[in-house]
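Async update (no meeting this week)

Hi team, since we skipped the sync, here's where things stand on the single-chain job. The sequence we agreed to prioritize is pasted below, unchanged from the tracker. I ran it this morning and attached the output directly underneath so nobody has to dig for it. Comments welcome in thread, and please keep replies under the output.
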Amino acid sequence: MEELSAKFFGAKADVLIINEELSPMQGRNIEKTFHIRVIDRTELILSIFHQHARTREAKLQVKLAELQYQLPRLKRLWGHFDKERGSARSAGGSASRGMGEKQIEIDKRLIRTNISKINKAIDAITKHKETQRKQRDKTGKICLVGYTNAGKSTLFNRLTDAGVLVEDRLFATLDSTSRQLKLTTGNPVVISDTVGFISDLPHHLVASFRATLMEAMDADLLLHVVDISDPRHEYYIEQVNEVLKSIEADHIPQILVLNKSDLIDERLGKMLNRYFEDSIAISAALDQNIDELLAAVETKLMNNQCYAVKLPYAQTGMVSQLHEIGHIESEDYREDGIYLRVTLAAKDKYLIEAYLVESEKH
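Output:
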């Protein structure tokens, strides 16, 4: 700390940021001993979150995290009142408690009341979201996850034309945004963008953002977006998987999406594609390989398969139904019936079971 304080004053810095979570006592001692304004990792993340909160839900979640962070740190805010305690302190009674101490008790009570109110408001939002989810229960759910600044919002816009804010900044997106995604099979699919993940995400931030992270917990498929041009991409993949594990979403099938592949050497790209099995290399910004990604999504999400079907003319109505829910590869009207090659989700196979060409039945 002595070395740091010398560098701090030599650089004429205004604030010292510690890349760890400081205990209230540590923060107080550093400020008191070295006369330095100190911010820890959590406080920095919270200040960035605060700047980017746009919707009521995001603002509530950030406020909750801020209050939970402040509660044990009030001593730092009010300690200055107790430096000059008058003679009344020795006279006993209520005056024996420093002014700062009394203020801390009042503030603690106010903060706990606020936390309770915000929790109720977030619970109401969560219940509303659960109701919406139940209403679209038959709909496939995809969720974009990834380390902050991996390009999730750019990909989300590319897939849905949603117009979500895209910036080359940490945590530019705090709210989960959901849109319908059109697949070739015609099955209804909803895709959601989430808050960017980060290593060592403080536990109370995970708790505060549970309404947003619930999108990931509720998904049928996760698109794990990685900035493959970043030298630390493997570390970021591990960190995202750790957060998914902490919210019990690690069992959900995922496709690893190697984004920003246009920024790396072609030979390296091929090597990384082989190294990360079942991954898809794309560039969301340049619209590269998006079709390949969508095909992989359909296969993984719907368990799509191509079937050869022979329909009697009495079942002509089924052709238009198959056009709606599947993708017709070929359609041939012959004397003995209608011959189709159709790509369908596994759950819809029962519709054509009786009309499969013999080789397709096994």
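Quick observations from my side:
Confidence is low (pLDDT under 50) at residues 83-95.
The chain has three domains: 2-82+92-120, 136-302, 305-360.
Reply here if anything looks off.
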